[in-house]
TrEMBL record:
Family: Belongs to the sulfotransferase 1 family.
EC numbers on record: 2.8.2.-
Protein name in UniProt: Sulfotransferase
GO MF entries: sulfotransferase activity
SUPFAM superfamilies, alphabetized: P-loop containing nucleoside triphosphate hydrolases (SSF52540)
EC class: transferase
Species the sequence originates in: Brachypodium distachyon (Purple false brome)
Keyword terms, alphabetized: Transferase
Sulfotransferase domain: residues covered: 14-174
Domain of life: Eukaryota
InterPro entries documented for this protein: P-loop_NTPase (IPR027417), Sulfotransferase_dom (IPR000863)
């Protein structure tokens, strides 16, 4: 079954927990935490799957959502599925937000890495021309990036978390008011 058909047919259950984020905003970390929490009784720490595999290998994904957002659902049957939903969908949602400048830098490095990987796969000896960080910043601020405007994505989930705090948990990854370990005081 195709991604769009699966998204259309998948009805969220009240017991479903959706993991949502803007790309490059802590999805891997959030998936690892959710997977470890859900499977803590089945897997002793000394032989936990996350010690040997990436959280993306432990989590099933169907692909990008038809709408420009990434949302993953952790079902009560202990599997994860990529699913398109809005913050007002059924089930519960855990949303992870990252500082925009950190999301931009991560997205920029990831795009450069993917372009280089694609060029090598096509036996292209010249590395691809990529956006400068200044060009990437301008596109990001204009909302012309892979998932649309980052601020709009975050605000949509923030507002829903304020309306339905029992259904939407809004988390911050690398909050701006915390001192980072590499910063000097």
């Amino acid at each position: 079954m195709g991604v769009v058909a699966t998204h259309t047919r998948l009805e969220p259950r009240p017991s479903d927990v959706f993991l949502a984020s803007f790309p490059k905003s802590g999805t891997t970390w959030l998936k690892a935490l959710a997977f470890a929490t859900l499977n803590r009784a089945k897997n002793p720490p000394c032989d936990h799957p996350l010690r040997h595999r990436n959280s993306h290998d432990c989590v099933q994904s169907l692909g990008m959502a038809p709408r420009p957002r990434r949302t993953e659902v952790m079902c009560s049957r202990s599997s994860f599925i990529l699913h398109a939903c809005s913050p007002a969908s059924g089930g519960r949602i855990v949303y992870i937000c990252r500082d925009p400048k950190d999301a931009l830098v991560s997205l920029w490095f990831f795009a450069k890495k993917m372009a280089t990987t694609a060029a090598r796969a096509n036996d292209n000896p010249r590395p691809p021309t990529s956006f400068t960080i200044e060009e990437a910043l301008e596109l990001f601020c204009d909302g012309r990036c892979v998932a649309g405007p980052q601020w709009q994505h975050v605000v949509e989930y923030w507002e829903e978390s304020r309306r339905r705090p029992d259904k939407v948990l809004f988390l911050r990854y690398e909050p701006g008011n915390a001192q980072r370990p590499y910063e000097q005081t």
